[in-house]
Amino acid sequence: MNDNKLIVGGSLTDALTGKYDFSLKSVIEQSFNVTKNHLGSLLGGFLILFGINVLMVLVLINFFSLESFENSLELQFVTSIIQAVINAPLLGGLMLMGIKHSVDIKTKATQVFDGFQRLMPLIVVSLIATVLNIILTLLLGQLHPNLGLLGSLYLTVVLALAMPLVIERGTGPLNALYYSFRITHYKLPKFIVLFLLIMGALFLAIIPFGLGLIWMLPMIYNLIGVVYKEIIGVTIINNDDPEPSDNISI
User: Fold this and answer.
1) Which residues pair with 7 in a beta bridge?
2) Which end of the chain is less congested by CB atoms within 10 angstroms, N or C?
3) In the Cβ-directed half-sphere of 138, how many Cα atoms lie within 13 Å?
4) What would the pLDDT profile of 34-65 be if each residue is shown by its tens digit?
5) pTM for the predicted model, two decimal places
6) Got the DSSP string for 38-87?
């Protein structure tokens, strides 16, 4: 490794062999504290993401009616693919911001666009994950609707570390998907519990007119960053910069 780089947190090598662990209580507490210090930039990033998605919906509505969306599985599939492609670099940017926050590096809302530095790998990961999710959900849904939901939950959990690996470590898309699948399976029950806790917290956040989402959405991406740091580790450039907003290896 370059002398001016150091890894804070876990180890990818150890993670790939299952030699890691994390405390649910600890990562949630860390994420809460990180969010207190780094709320504004992620919130701004989400507003940018939301605005772009609103524009995308408006464009699609100009071409297709709501009835055609409801009655055409093919159109729903194509729309999901388009959404995956457009959102991939922006979600990657949000994840990178959360990773930076996990090691107390400040960010700006515009850094949501940093994902474009890994544009194609992020798109490939997003497309593969989306297609797999759709296929598994449809196949299992033929047996029972609840099985489709469980299949979607499973894929969401086991592929959760793929995008962070691409955006922070520069891992190739296929390797990132495989690494995420392999790493999460060592502690799969714990990852599933964490995911269910997130879903429960999101549900509670929606109740007060959705105001709780102002806190919860940024916290989720900070949580991803904290979990990533604890398991895989964050590569830091040590250049003694008093304002280390860019002191992360990307």
Assistant:
1) 235
2) N
3) 10
4) 999 999 999 999 999 999 999 988 888 787 76
5) 0.89
6) SHHHHHHHHHHHHHHHHHHHHHHHHHS-HHHHHH-HHHHHHHHHHHHHHH
